Structures are given as C-alpha cells and as structure tokens.
Amino acid sequence: MPAKLRCRMALDKDSRWERRTWPVLRRLAKEVPEAGLHVQTARVLRREKDVATGLKAALADGLFQFDPWYKEVMDNFREIPANELPEGMHSGCEFMSVCINTAVYLPWLVGQCAKYGVQFKRGIVKHISEAYSLSHTGKKADIVINASGVLACKLGGVMDKAVYPARGQIVVVRNEANGFMPTSSGCDDADDEIMYVMQRALGGGTVLGGTYMKHNWDPNPDPNIAVRIMKRAVEAHPELTDGKGIEALSIIRHGVGLRPAREGGVRIEKEKIDGTWVVHNYGHAGWGYQGSYGCAEKVLELVDEIVKQERRQSKL
C-alpha cells in the first residue's frame, strides 16, 4: 500500500502562515491565560524504518524534515542526541511549542470579535451568493470571506473538488503528559494512522491521536482504532500511566474530526462571484490553528486590495 501524505506542518516554501502565527500564539500562552493556551515541549521523532525506506509521505511533512525551517522560529530548539532517543528512532528534535484547549480558545475568540464590534448571525447557506444578504447592515455585503472549511467542496458557487476530509480520530484522557508533546513520523498499525500526545491547558485533558484518513467522512469513533491509538500513546509516553498500560488510562471521551484538506494546499485568493467580491480562506488540513493569524493577515491584504481597486474604479 502506498504511503499517504499527512500534513501537520508546512514546508519552508509555504511556511509564511505559520511563521506569522507562532509569535502570536506564544504571546497568548504567556500573557493571556484565559485564552486557553499553554507552553509545552514538542518532541518530534523520525523512526529508523521511515528514514531507511525513504518513506516520502512521512518525511515530506514539514514537521519531520531534517534541518527544519521552524528551528528559526521556535524557542529552545535542539536536536535530540542519539543517547536520548527512544528505541527504534533515527533522530529527532525538541522545541517549545504551545497546546490549545479549543473548548476555551474558540469562545475567547468570539469574545474578542464581539469586543471589536463583530455581529454574529447563524444561518444556512447553500450557495455563496446567499451570504451576500446576511450583512447586519441590512444591505448587500461588499465583500464576503469564505471560510467554509471542508464544505467548500459542496458550497454552491464554490464547489471546490480539490477539497476533501482528512478524518482524525482521538481519545481524550484525564492522565497528564507532564509537559511533553511527543509525535513520530509513522507507526506500524496503518499508513493513515499516527501517534501524538497533547495535554490541553486549563484542565482540558490530554489528547491521544490519531489518524489521517483521506476522503473519509465517517464521524463515528472506531473502537478498534481507539485501542491502537491508546497503545501507541502509552508505548511512546509510558509516564501517562506510570508504566501500567492502557488499562490505567482514564478516558473522558472519544472524538472524530474532519480536517479540511485540499489538493494543492490552502486557497487564499479573491474572486468575483455573481458580481460580489469573495475572499477564499480554506483548505488548511491539519495546521489551521497554527497558521491562522498568518492566513488572516493575508485575507486582510486581499480585502484592502479590493477596497483600493473599487475606490479607483469609482473615480473613473
């Protein structure tokens, strides 16, 4: 079976979004505790068998590149000495990263938007043109930002066939990870299964992952996959259960999410649809949070371009 590409961090040529976002996330973790972020040590491991076989899908992910671009961005970056590597690992690195408790962070973002005057409206949009009439002003919107995620493949007027779900299954447990977030370049269970451990801030539990199943829309947790996820996490991070195995894991819940992946990568561009400007921002796969501020910055640049262009044309 050919290995499948799993994108958890961009390559250098596409790293603008993350380079611009990491300083903001780091500041929030240090200065805004109510946002739900905290600092953790990421431990990235390349397996010997992946390096020996040249497993392109694993090592093509920017996270597992040798001499990675993010060593210039992340605090306390270091290559892990050979005598510190777990058995079966070829090489790896550590650096200070952040972990987001999304159940806290997303409501915090809503609050920040409300503070600056953003108006919220819930509705059903089957075609992008239907969003033009949803402005709180009661008038037709001048510009619409399309952040429809994985459903960009089904939204009328967009129907981007390059967009697909990358199914991620997790197990959330009460056990603590002691400040480390380990992940490895692959696992022996399946080409579309991966291993990572992340302890969320503010009592959000520890997330054990996971999977990266392309074109899989199933929203239901698979119990067999869940067992494999827990076994991989405990093997990589035995401190989770003090060496007592998966039976000592205290499970909060099982979860499934559909990452909004896209062939060719993220789409951030402007387009006029039915006479109204639309700025697209979707297709972020598994790195949406860690590239969010950089992408928003680009969206703002495109909005400014549209505004200036419309002003020039109105003067003609």
What is the helical fraction, as a range of percent?
10-25%
Largest sheet: 5 strands, antiparallel
What is the terminal separation in angstroms? 60 Å
Quaternary state of the chains: single chain
What is the element string, with H for helices and E for strands?
A: HEHHEEHEEEEEEHEEEH
User: Strand-residue fraction?
Assistant: 25-35%
Structural class of the secondary elements?
alpha+beta
> Mean pLDDT, nearest integer?
93
3D structure, described in words:
- There is one protein chain.
- This protein is an alpha+beta fold.
- It contains six helices and twelve strands.
- The chain has helices at residues 16-31, 48-52, 56-59, 102-115, 223-236, 292-314, and strands at 37-47, 75-79, 89-100, 143-146, 163-173, 180-184, 193-199, 206-211, 213-214, 251-262, 267-273, 276-282.
- Strands 5, 7, 8, 9 and 10 form a five-stranded antiparallel β-sheet that branches. Strands 2-3-1-6 form a four-stranded mixed β-sheet.
- A hairpin with a 2-residue loop joins strand 11 and strand 12.
- Helix 1 crosses helix 6 (292-314).
- The termini are far apart.
Task: Write the topology of this structure.
Elements: H1 16-31, E1 37-47, H2 48-52, H3 56-59, E2 75-79, E3 89-100, H4 102-115, E4 143-146, E5 163-173, E6 180-184, E7 193-199, E8 206-211, E9 213-214, H5 223-236, E10 251-262, E11 267-273, E12 276-282, H6 292-314
Helix pairs in contact: 1-6
Cofactor: FAD
Keywords: FAD, Flavoprotein, Oxidoreductase
Organism: Cercophora samala
